[in-house]
Each structure stands twice: as structure tokens, then as C-alpha cells.
Amino acid sequence: MNATATPLIDGFGRLHDNLRISVTDRCNIRCSYCMPEKDVHFIDRTEILSFEEIERFARIAVGLGVNKIRVTGGEPLVRKDLPVLLQKLRGIEGIRDIALTTNGVLLAEQAQALYDAGLRRLNVHLDTLDRERFRQITRRDELDRVLAGLDAAQRCGFGPIKINAVAVKGLVEPDVVPLARFGRERGFEIRYIEFMPLDAQGIWDRGRVLLADDILKLLADGIGPLEAVPDPDPRAPALEYRFADGRGAVGFIASVSRPFCLNCNRIRITSDGMLRYCLFALEETDVKSLLRGGASNEEIAAVVRRVVSAKWLGHEINSAKFVAPPRPMYAIGG
What we know:
single chain; 334 residues; alpha/beta; 12-stranded mixed beta sheet
């Protein structure tokens, strides 16, 4: 952050230093809780931010105190020449951490190039190790490619590698324990993400959420006792636990049962250049028109400040006031 810059603090005193950048809304799988199987309407490619526009916005954000970036999609690895963007982002002074979230289907082919571009941290989406259930969930037969991608990433030296598993009740209970065992054996941290109301088909219902407490019980019964990780980062979204025998850790993104809104430090920019202060926000601010319309860096920075200043207290997912955002997860950015 510039010495004279004021930190990005909202009306509730939350400091924002984490930027999520979506590079595409396209994806090469069709998870049943996220996207329709057919007739998906994607953003026109001319409306997607270029690498140069993303880099410029990231530099402006870093000038306001952002020091962590996560690249997401859709599926970011379907974006051509993604390592070029990562190199651009790595070149911005002030960024301490860059991470990537991927479904892993294209990871084996791209792992080395991503590593050479300076990327070190990965989150790989994987709900099951069972091939038939993988096909049922994703509507694609790509489990072998995802596992090959994890192997390739480990060979390249990526770390930490975390596995994101979406917890849908009545669907993934058989996979909870096997995934944790897989993580214990291979050195991956499994993160169970409570199913959120961000699907494109409106199928979410609170009764379909496999809650963190239920998963903890499955793990304790199936593997052994867990204990909360001491002195956690209060602004980290995951509740972290480790197995009492010292072998492995798991995390929970419990947005439904244990919202972490009061500690949120994130802002998001969608692949088509819309700035959002929350994944669940009902409004968004057009930054692309500023980037393409001749606005100065100072003018764009002022818009970022206004968006953060107007940030709400939280998404109210557990109240009757909750309204799902008009865009699904793949169009917002994970």
C-alpha cells in the first residue's frame, strides 16, 4: 500500500486486503449444484476483461492495500495463456500471495507452466473419489484427469494444495471420510464447503446443506477425533481442524451454519469487470466501462473505495430477509 493511501475499511471496521479475480465464466464440467447440463449462456468474449485490464485493476487495488489475490472462474484453466496473466500479477510490487482455484481437469497439462509463472498455492475442486459418483455430480467422466492433475501439481512442488468438496446433503455423505483419508495419505487439506444458494437452477434449499457439524461427526466416527487448530487467523474463511493423531487437517467453509461475514476481508471482480463487495451481493459496480472509457487510476480507486464503504454487514442467509444474487456462482467467480 502507498504510504499515503488510506486502507480499504468499510463502515463496520473491516479491513479489505484480499481480491478475488474471475477470468472466465466458462467451465469444462457441469456440476449439478452449479450449472445446467445444457444451454448455458456465457458472457460474450468481447465483454471479458483482457489480461492488461486485469493487471491494471490489480495494480490499483494493491495501491489501496490489497496484498492477496485469488484467480478463479468458471474454470480459470480454460482461459488461454493464463500463465501470462499470473506472471503479470506476480510482477506487481506489494502482492504477498497469489492462489488459484481450479477443477483440476486441465491441471496435468498446465501445472508446470503455472509453477514456472510463479504460482505456488492451489485449491482443487473434487467432491468424490468414486468414478460413477463423480460422473453423476459433474456430468463428465473426468476423475482420472483430476487425479492426474493433483499428481502433476505435487511433482512440480506446489504447496499447500487444498481440495474443495461441496457438501450437498443426500449426495456426498459416502465421500466425506474417503476424501479425508486421501488427504491424510497424500498431504492435502480437504475443505468441505457447505452448499450455498448460488446455483443456476434454483435447487438450493437449506435442507440440502450438509452442515459442518454433521461432517465433523462423520469424520470422528470414520477416522478418529479432531481438534480445532489453535490460534486460527480470525479473517480466514475456513474453520480448521486437525486429527488428534497428528495425521492431516481439514477445513470447513461454513457459510450457512457459521457465517464469517463479520471478519470478511474480500472484494471481487467478475470476468466481465463488475466489482462486488460480497459473493452474495445483490448489486455490482461496472469497472470495465471505466477501464475502457479513459478513467484515470485515481477515479477507479475512488470507485473501489465507495464500493467497500457501502459494504453490507452480511448476507443474512439464515434469515427471512435473504435474497439470492441474480448471478450464479460460475458467473460471479468462486
